[in-house]
Amino acid sequence: MVIELGAVRLLAPWFGTSSSVWTNVIGVVLAALALGYALGARLASGRSPLRRLGTVLLLGAAFAAWLPIAASGIAAWFMPAGVALHDAAELLVWGSLGAATVLFLPAAATLGCAGPLAVEVLQRVRGGGAGRAGGHVLAASTIGSLVGTFGTTHLFIPSLGVTGTFLTASVVLAAAGLWLWFASARGTRSTVQAVGLVLLSVGGGTLSASSAEARPPGEGETLLASADSSMQSLRVIESGEGAQRMRFLRVNESLDSFQSVWKPEPGLLLGGHYYDYFALPYAWTFHELGEAPPTWDVLVIGLGAGTAVRVLEGALADGTRLRTVGVEIDPEVVELGAEYFDLERGTDDRVAVGGMDGRAALRYMDRQFDQIIVDAYANNMEIPPHLASTEAFAAMGAILKPRGWISINVGGFGLEDPVVRAVAAAAAVGLQETVSIGRIPFSRNLGVWLRKDDEVPRPSTSEFGSLGQPLPGGTGQLIEGFSVPGAWARLEPEALAESAKNDDRSAMEELQLESILLASKHLHELDDASGDGSEERVAGPAATQDDEANFASVQALQGEGVDMALAFEAARAIESPRLRQTAESRLLWGAGDLFGALDAATQGLRFVPRDPGLLLTAVNLGLIVGASQASGERLARLQEVVDTDASMDTPTRDWYRGQIAPLIDLQADAQRLRQAKERAVKLSRWSTFAMAGAALGLILALAFTGRVGGASSASTTG
């Protein structure tokens, strides 16, 4: 059980800890045990089962010692560094299965041999029937499994770490194996060989594990702290200098993400960090009242290292007293938050509860809140189903003040994302209120907002706020992004009743996989839009003087602090498809909708496939979102246009060449990553099928030869 439970923790930095990963690990271990039982039964018929049992335990010790160091390299085969979440659907399933098969099938099969051998040894030593010996062995192994189950989660990993836990298991197995060898060996030579094997394996594994890092910090990053809690692996990373310093808490995450963020001064983080948008309910309330409310009570479910609280500390107006209660299921995260993220705790205004589940904590709240923030998820995408049910949100509504707010962070790929819709539906039905969904610019996060006994302001109304109004903490600059087409949706609970999930029926993990698959499909469609680079020109009206004027207006309206609604209105007035799609692509890019911007650029290239401006835009966006095949073909076409277009003057040609030069290297890196991902998928499938087929074949061979041998013996005896 130590190895089985530890196996998921070894794979977590690459594949997470979803039910798919657990299923793959458990399935591999069960298959390996079946193989081990069959092989152990065959070994038990020999002359010295005691020595063979010792050998099995010594081999198990060697495997356990080397698994932590082998995990880094093998997992990297199946999940190459740099793969984005929306392009990792196949690898999350097949990669975790392949890695689990290669890593744990040999180890678990070896240890599976111990059971039949132990039964044989006990029966020969004590006599009696096989049922009696088997019952004693099963009882002892079950007790050992209980110790391993509770000890691994509550004692070994928190105190020793994942690597230390495996090494401890290795030492225990080695000690048992050596004792059996001493008991069975008639001479010293075999014993010396056994001691040497164990010392070499355990020592080599210890040295390798102590000098290896699962995923070293990137260029310009410094590792400040790392820890293995009972739930996950934690790392605190710092980058930048001076006022530009930032710290990140990374939790089992290898897919371009992190959990908590810190900068030297409290307040908005900007740059696409979703935490900033937790400040909007206060800004809307401030705007509604025309003054700062005297207090603002906030419950944070999924406190992490306290980023949401720190953003609010700098975003609230003078005169408002911020009082927070934060609930975090992993107490080690709270400790790291206090040490590295300026998480204040232990005062009346700052309460941080570590080691408690967010849903359970709702029962113990003795006051009501102006705002409840729900930011509880793991490994980029895994939302606990019991925190995304109608019952959970109904319980939250019960501790909200009248006209209080619920703010939810959801990872997804657009307003129609199945996970986003499911969470929004559960919240709307649980509170029986209208729900609003907003896309967070330059991120794959979406915000979900509800208000008890009231509605969230609409972007088109004055209650929503605008850049021209003095909202506290700089929150006004967050408003305009929601006026972009496709950035905001407002849904009634009646329309969402059928999609809302409850505690009895929650398909959250299936929806999360569906979300990634849909995003991957969309990406492949974008990647295939120029499939062979032969985008054919589609006829469209030529640009008029009014088009040119509107296009110039759009260009003038680009940048920070502009009225996005006015800019899009000017873009829509353009009749020329080339200019309209170019304008919309640039506006969407500026507003942080990268997929929408690439869509618009792709549509524009259908009308003017050799337009250098659109090609350059499409190449940049393709490289950002991961459409490397299309970006490569368009980059080649852009180079050809720049080299052969006689109408292009020299300064313009030189400018384009300057833009192209760095894109060539980026495209080469993207292509290498794409090829690495394709190799990883193939390797995952073939290694799984090969090892599973070999294991099944060996089981059948052992069973068949056993029957033949038994029949021959019976015939001879007769």
UniProtKB/TrEMBL annotation:
GO biological process, one term: polyamine biosynthetic process
UniProt key word S-adenosyl-L-methionine: no
Statement: the UniProt record of this protein carries the keyword Membrane: yes
Region (Disordered): 527-546
Transmembrane segments: 20-44, 56-79, 91-117, 137-157, 163-182, 683-704
Key words, A-Z: Membrane, Polyamine biosynthesis, Transmembrane, Transmembrane helix
Gene3D superfamilies: Vaccinia Virus protein VP39 (3.40.50.150)
InterPro entries cross-referenced by the UniProt entry: SAM-dependent_MTases_sf
One Pfam family of this chain: Spermine_synth
Protein name as it appears in the record: Spermidine synthase
